[in-house]
Amino acid sequence: MNDEKRPVLLCLDLEAGSETLAVIGAGFAKDLGEDLRILYVMPEKSRESEEDALGRLGGLIEKTLGGLDIMKTLEVRRGEVEGSIVEYMKEKGARIVILGHRHGARRERVYVGSTTRAIISLAPAPVLVVPIDSEKGSS
């Protein structure tokens, strides 16, 4: 089972700092010799179409990782973030999931951190949480 290819799953929210997180995720995938699967989960009630969201995701990845020689697969799903990410991990047999964490005001940390905590507790594989500076790196 150790020789089995298992992708690195990178979850992006297309907010500030996503470019930085993309570079980190691609580096992990390259170091592990695995494919990189990039997932954006959009809110169920979003007015944006999945096609438009995929276009924005593709633009960010092309700008950030365009010259990198690594197998990348982009996907957009609509729904609840935690459940969608955990389901995707199971479907694709992800080796690891990489999430970003922005430092915010104390009040924001109570709510923002809940998504990360839920994924950590439900994930069938290791979860890497990367602190990203929302002031730097934009999407």
Describe the structure.
This protein is of the alpha/beta class and 139 residues long. The chain has one domain: HUPs (Rossmann fold), CATH 3.40.50. Helix content is 43%, strand content 22%. It contains four helices and five strands; from the N terminus they run βαβαβαβαβ. It starts with 7 loop residues before the first strand and ends in a 7-residue tail after the last strand. About 4% of the residues have low confidence.
List keywords for this structure.
139 residues; alpha/beta; Rossmann fold; five-stranded parallel beta sheet; 5 strands; 43% helix; globular
CA radius of gyration is 14 Å
Calculate the terminal CA-CA distance, rounded to whole Å: 37 Å
> Which shape, going by the Cα principal axes?
globular
Low-pLDDT stretches are 107-112
Largest sheet: 5 strands, parallel
Class by alpha and beta content: alpha/beta
* Helical residues, percent: 40-55%
Number of helices: 4
User: Based on the structure given, which CATH architecture is correct?
Assistant: 3-Layer(aba) Sandwich
The average pLDDT score comes to 87
CATH superfamily, called what? Answer: HUPs
CATH topology call: Rossmann fold
Top CATH class: Alpha Beta
Q: Can you list the strand order of the major beta sheet? A: 3-2-1-4-5
Strand residue content: 15-25%
| SSE order, one letter for each helix or strand | EHEHEHEHE
Total separate domains: 1
| Total number of strands | 5
